[in-house]
Every structure is written in structure tokens, then in C-alpha cells.
Design goal:
The complex is a heterodimer of chains A (332) and B (268). Helix content of chain A is 78%, strand content 0%. The radius of gyration of chain A is 20 Å and the shape is globular. Chain A is mainly α. By secondary structure, chain B is an alpha/beta fold. Chain B is 35% helix and 27% strand. In chain B, the strands form 3 sheets. A 6-stranded mixed beta sheet of chain B has the order 6-7-8-3-9-10, with helices on both faces. In chain B, a hairpin with a 2-residue loop joins β4 and β5. The N and C termini of chain B lie far apart (54 Å). In chain B, 38% of the residues are buried. Classes of the chains: A mainly alpha (332), B alpha/beta (268). At the A-B interface, α9 and α10 of A face α2, β6 and α3 of B.
Chain lengths: 332, 268
């Protein structure tokens, strides 16, 4: 028994090292690449506080918070997607299923078009809108319990209605819609320490909570009747875990806008790699989501430099390509 | 612990599925629920397990109504195996059976040595020792059904409710499941309650038969006293004979024709 545990410990710490090394390489690449490249030696000096000037501004003020934010946003979306797929027992569920992204988008579009609020309140507007959208979906679906099909239908309805209003507003405001379009595509342009401070602690809390509930998530895969027979209150867990997914996603919408596909594709990819067991699936999905987001963000700000593309463009492209690969792999 | 339904009514929408039904289950015996499709067998099992709330009346386990039991405490007393249980295809047999331990575990679900031992015992009792490391996707229908029974055993509940446990199995696997349940009942004193379609199997393996029709119990007792030609005609609408083997006292039904079909033809 002790030997088995030792083997398991070695294996886990081995994977931990791989994750750390991969993350380190990606973070360094993200700090180094951009319109003005920064050498790795200069990055190290900046991080040690031994260098000022342009390198410091590039690395410390712009790229480091943005990279950390990318890691968090990716992990949040991937874990939220994994949660939603487990809660609804539907492999096509995504973090946006609860209407949280559509609600956030609607709130931001309306606020930016018809109010004179400063840009700094946008994250809060998105957060409130996202939570309201999710509350509307869950409220519509609620009938004394939370049936996955009802939740999916209610989420689609709320998303469609919000999308219709957003389109109407964009048409109405006309030429000033460019800025809104860019926000709607999602991205980390101009995000820095304030946004990281806004969601850093709560994101980590949400991610840790999801990991803590890995056993309940595993049980939920067994079907309502068996789960109930094992003594779990099915709808309470389903509601609580859906709320946790909303909590994680709303934070993404607040700082980066509605970013699609990460939360849908990454859980699938992770499932192909490690199977259905949430004890492995959740950490692997979080890691892959974080990495994908950083890669997409680096691509978004380097491919057409000095201009910048919305990161949502890349996550959608990578996500679409990933899904095509899935179709062929599984021969659906 | 004694499980009984006291004057329960259950509705699906506007239609009444169980109508003022009362039943006390014999402890440590095998009870088979019989009846035509739609007579309420599955609904009764769900109500007995607490999965469905009756609109009136109550199901009582031991000294209190099911509603007053906490989820986990109830799960330690009774286990329900539904007609179509689902699980991820890639799940390993041992992992699935381990889920049966969850009513005995705390929030973190840390596995104790005892849990491992009980899972090993449940696998052995269902003849699945060699299957522990296999994914569900590699198992046949009969093997899967044994895995689900192993999960219920790992739950260590003295009352086991099964909804048509043999319906999708071939004859050999049907008898295998029935004999497994008989052994578990004899060796471990398990109270077994199951719905079944095969009257001969019910007569052979059950201590008690409960015959249902339109949400009511129309007959209840030992097979020899319950299964009669009149009952076959009235409840199942078939013309048949019930014979008792003089040596083994084993009952067997022989069926001749459907009464509904005959009447329809005569009228036409």
C-alpha cells in the first residue's frame, strides 16, 4: 500500500513538474514576444527589480498582468465548461449555456451606448449583467428541480433574446459601434493589474471549489436515480455546481468579454487525454485552458503587430479546428 | 428494518398512477412485483425508495416516514437499481462500485481500508473479481447488470429495490441475476424487492408475489396461493394453466392464448 502511494506521489509530482515547466515556458514567451521583443535576460532582471525603463513597463506593467490574467481566464472557462458538461450530462454544454455571457454582453453594450459611465465600470456592468442573465435562465428552468434539458432550453432562449437586443443596439448606435464590436469579440488588450486584482482571488477560490467538488461531479455522471439512491440531493448539487460555473464565467466576461469555444473544446480535449474521471479531468482542463488562452493572446498581439486582433478570433479558430479534429477522431 | 407504504397515492400530471396503495414488505424475503405494463410497478419502487413523493399517504421505513430520513442515512438502508442506469463508458468497474461507498463517506470521500475491503467483497459476491480493472464499455449486458448489483451491495443497504433487473438480458443471464439475488438473500439476509415480467421466474425465486393492476394491489401472498388461472385471465388477459410439480412443489404457468386478441377476433 505504501509502495503504491509512493508510486502515485511520484507520478503526480512528475506531472506537476511538466505543468510547471510548460507554464514557465509559455509565460516567458508571452513576456518576451510583442511589438518590441524583450530578451529573457532582461525579463529576469525586471522580475528581480534590477531594471527600469521600457523593459520594465513592457514586462511589469503590460505583459505580466495580462499573461496572468490570460492563465486565469483560460482556466476559469475550461473549468466552467467541465462543470456545465457534468451538471447537464451533455457534452455540448459550454459556460455560455446559462446565458451568462449573453447577459454580460447585453449589459455592457447598453451601458456603453446609452450612458456616460467611465470605462472603468465596464467590468462591474458585465459582471452584474452576466449574473442577471444566468439568474434569468436558471429561474426560467426551475420547476422545483433543475432538469438539464430545461436549463439548456432556457439558456438558449435568454441568449437569443439578449443577442437580438444587442444587435438592435449596435445598429442603432451606428458608427460608434466599432469599440463595442471589439469588446464583444473578447480579449485582453489594455488589461492590467486592476483587472487581475478584480478577479484574481475570486477566480482562484472558484477553481479550488470546483476541485473540491470533484467527487460529487463524478457521482452526478451516474444518472439521477442512482445518484439519489446513493444519498445525494441531485438538484441541490446541480444548482450549486451550475452556480459555480456561472461564478467563474461571469468573472471572465467582466475582464475579457465573452470569449467562446475555450469552455467547450478544452473539456473535450482533456477528456480524450485523461478520461471522464473528474479528479484528473478538472486539473488537466484547467491547465490546457490556461495555456490555450495565453497562446491565443500572444497570437492576437503579435500576428498583425503593431495592430491587435481580438483574442476571441483565435479561440474560435482554434476551437473550430479542434472540433473538426474531434469529429474525425471519433468518427461520429 | 421494515419498509411499508401506507395508503399512498402518486400522480403523474393529472393521471393517478398509484391509488390508495398499502403494502408492507416482508423482511429478509424476496418479493416480486408483477403486473401488466403501466400497472404502476416502477412507480411503486420509486415511491418505496423515496425518489417519488406521494401526494397523499406515506412510505415508512423503521420508525419514521422516508421524508424524515436524511439522504445518506436512507442510502445506508435502501438501494435502488433503476431500469436504465447510466455511467460514463470509460469508467472502470472498481471505480463505479466504489461510488456505492459514498453514503458511508464524509465530504472529501477519502477511501478507507474498509471501503476497499467492502468493494472487493461486493465484486467477489457478484463474480466480478477479474473485472475490476476493466472499463464498462468492455462488458456484456449481463456483466453490467452484475456491476450495478455490486454497486448496490457496496452500499451495504439491507433493502435492495430493483426495477426489472432482467428485462434486457438473454435467458442465461436472466437466471444468473436471479440466482445471484437468491444467494444474496439467503447468505446475507438481504430484503429484495423487484419488478419482473416473467411469471415463471417470479414463482420460482420469490417468497412473496405482489400483483398490481391500474395502480392497485390485486393479489399479495406466497406464489402458490397467488398465481392462479383466474388471476392470469383477469390481470394479464391470458388463458393459461398453473401447474405444481408434485415433487419439487415448483409452480409453472403454461400460456395458451391472449384473451384480448381472441375476444377482438370473435367480435370482428
Amino acid at each position: 500500500m505504501a509502495a503504491e502511494q509512493a508510486v502515485a506521489w511520484v507520478r503526480w509530482s512528475g506531472w506537476g513538474l511538466v505543468v510547471l515547466a510548460g507554464s514557465l515556458v509559455l509565460v516567458l514567451a508571452s513576456l518576451s514576444l510583442g511589438v518590441v521583443p524583450v530578451a529573457v535576460s532582461a525579463i529576469v532582471e525586471v522580475l528581480l527589480g534590477e531594471q527600469g525603463g521600457l523593459s520594465r513597463i513592457l514586462v511589469w506593467e503590460l505583459r505580466l498582468p495580462r499573461t496572468l490574467l490570460g492563465l486565469l481566464v483560460g482556466a476559469n472557462l475550461a473549468v466552467a465548461g467541465t462543470l456545465m458538461q457534468a451538471v447537464t450530462r451533455n457534452p455540448l454544454a459550454s459556460p455560455s449555456l446559462t446565458g451568462v455571457m449573453a447577459g454580460g454582453a447585453l449589459a455592457v453594450v447598453v451601458a456603453m451606448s446609452y450612458s456616460s459611465w467611465p470605462v472603468t465600470v465596464t467590468p462591474y456592468v458585465a459582471l452584474v449583467g452576466g449574473l442577471a442573465g444566468a439568474a434569468a435562465s436558471i429561474g426560467l428552468a426551475w420547476n422545483g428541480q433543475l432538469a438539464p434539458v430545461r436549463l439548456a432550453l432556457a439558456g438558449v432562449a435568454v441568449t437569443a433574446l439578449c443577442g437580438a437586443v444587442v444587435t438592435a443596439v449596435l445598429l442603432n448606435v451606428g458608427s460608434s459601434a466599432d469599440e463595442l464590436f471589439f469588446w464583444m469579440a473578447g480579449g485582453l488588450l489594455g488589461r492590467s493589474w486592476p483587472q487581475l486584482e478584480l478577479i484574481g482571488a475570486t477566480s482562484l477560490l472558484g477553481l479550488l471549489l470546483a476541485l473540491a467538488f470533484r467527487r460529487q461531479l463524478n457521482l452526478l455522471s451516474l444518472g439521477d436515480e442512482v445518484v439519489r439512491s446513493l444519498g445525494m440531493r441531485v438538484w441541490r448539487w446541480r444548482l450549486g455546481l451550475a452556480a459555480l460555473a456561472v461564478f467563474l464565467t461571469a468573472q471572465v466576461v467582466a475582464v475579457a468579454g465573452p470569449i467562446g469555444f475555450v469552455g467547450l473544446v478544452i473539456p473535450h480535449l482533456a477528456r480524450i487525454l485523461v478520461g471522464d474521471d473528474q479528479r484528473r479531468l478538472l486539473p488537466v482542463a484547467a491547465c490546457l485552458g490556461a495555456w490555450l488562452m495565453v497562446v491565443a493572446d500572444v497570437a492576437a498581439r503579435t500576428l498583425v503587430a503593431p495592430a491587435e486582433l481580438p483574442v476571441g478570433l483565435f479561440t474560435a479558430t482554434l476551437g473550430g479546428a479542434g472540433f473538426i479534429a474531434l469529429i474525425y477522431r471519433q468518427r461520429l | 428494518m421494515r419498509l411499508s407504504a401506507q395508503q399512498i397515492c402518486v400522480d403523474y400530471g393529472k393521471s393517478r398512477v398509484l391509488d390508495d396503495l398499502s403494502l408492507t414488505l416482508a423482511e429478509g424475503e424476496i418479493t416480486c412485483l408483477l403486473g401488466p405494463n403501466g400497472s404502476g410497478k416502477s412507480t411503486l419502487l420509486k415511491a418505496l425508495s423515496g425518489a417519488l413523493q406521494p401526494v397523499s399517504g406515506q412510505v415508512v421505513l423503521g420508525d419514521r416516514a422516508l421524508a424524515q430520513w436524511s439522504g445518506k442515512a436512507l442510502a445506508r438502508q435502501l438501494a435502488l437499481l433503476p431500469q436504465h442506469p447510466v455511467a460514463p463508458e470509460g469508467l472502470l468497474v472498481t471505480e463505479l462500485v466504489h461510488y456505492g461507498r459514498s453514503p458511508h463517506q464524509g465530504f472529501w470521500g477519502a477511501r478507507s481500508r474498509e471501503d476497499d475491503d467492502i468493494v472487493a467483497w461486493a465484486l467477489a459476491a457478484t463474480g466480478l473479481e477479474a473485472y475490476g480493472a476493466r472499463p464498462l464499455s468492455q462488458l456484456s449486458g449481463g456483466e453490467r447488470q452484475r456491476v450495478w448489483i455490486a454497486l448496490a451491495l457496496a452500499q451495504q443497504a439491507p433493502i435492495l429495490l430493483l426495477d426489472e433487473p432482467t428485462t434486457f438480458l438473454d435467458l442465461g443471464h436472466q437466471l444468473e441475476v436471479m440466482e445471484l439475488l437468491t444467494d444474496l438473500n439467503r447468505d446475507h439476509g438481504l430484503t429484495v424487492v423487484m419488478s419482473l415480467h416473467d411469471l415463471n421466474q417470479a414463482a420460482r425465486y420469490a417468497h412473496q408475489l405482489v400483483v398490481m393492476e391500474q395502480g392497485r394491489i390485486v393479489a399479495h401472498g406466497e406464489p402458490a396461493a397467488t398465481l392462479t388461472e383466474g388471476l392470469l385471465a383477469r390481470v394479464f388477459r391470458v388463458r393459461g394453466q398453473v401447474e405444481s410439480d408434485p415433487h419439487s412443489r415448483q409452480l409453472s404457468c403454461r400460456f395458451h392464448s391472449s384473451l384480448n386478441y381472441t375476444i377482438a377476433n370473435e367480435n370482428g
